[in-house]
Amino acid sequence: MFCTTNFIELIEIAIIALSDSSYGHNLQNSNMDSDLNLADEVDFIKKDVNFAVDYIDVSKELPEKDGKIYINIQTKEKDRFCVELSSSGFTVVGKEYDCQNEDGTNRSYETVYSLLSNISSSYNRTFSDELARKLSNLQEQLEPN
């Protein structure tokens, strides 16, 4: 059994392992003109949340322009969304792939995690399950043989 300090450290390590340290920064604090372009940003996002969605990819119909890229997402509940990614964050712009039919009053989310937490009722549970799995794997690695 781990003491509290070791357990907290284990959780911190698992969170880093779960996100694979590839993504998770706040888009509003990043410079979108840096070496990391929007398509690369989406690649990092896909790797981070692939376990929690049925589908996620860049829209093939809506072009990247004016500092915006569009992402098609299907949640575990089979709901489909078109999400705009810009320096303002993540904004649902359509309730179907490749679709911009929202009126522009939708809330923007700073991270993909907060977006998924709001559009997918199973996201938090799926994230918790994945975290528990990673913690269990890490515990097995740390235990003496």
Structure description:
39% of the residues lie in helices and 19% in strands. The protein is built from four helices and five strands, in the order H-H-E-E-E-E-E-H-H. It has helices at residues 4-19, 38-49, 112-119, 123-142; strands at 53-58, 69-75, 80-86, 89-94, 108-109. A five-stranded antiparallel β-sheet has the order 1-2-3-4-5. A hairpin with a 4-residue loop joins strand 2 and strand 3. The chain starts with a helix and ends with a helix.
Radius of gyration: 17 Å
Q: What is the mean predicted local confidence, pLDDT?
A: 81
Question: How are strands sequenced across the largest beta sheet?
Answer: 1-2-3-4-5
Contiguous uncertain segments of 5+ residues: 1-5, 20-35
The shape is elongated
Largest sheet: 5 strands, antiparallel
CATH topology-level name: copper amine oxidase-like fold
SSE-based structural type:
alpha+beta
What's the number of extended β-strand segments? Answer: 5
Distance between the termini: 15 Å
Question: Helicity level, as a percent range?
Answer: 25-40%
What pattern of helices and strands is seen along the backbone?
HHEEEEEHH
Task: Give the quaternary arrangement of the chains.
Answer: single chain
CATH architecture grouping = 2-Layer Sandwich
- H/I helix tally: 4
Name of the CATH homologous superfamily: Hypothetical protein (hspc210)
> Proportion of β residues?
15-25%
The CATH top-level class label: Alpha Beta
Q: Please give the domain count.
A: 1
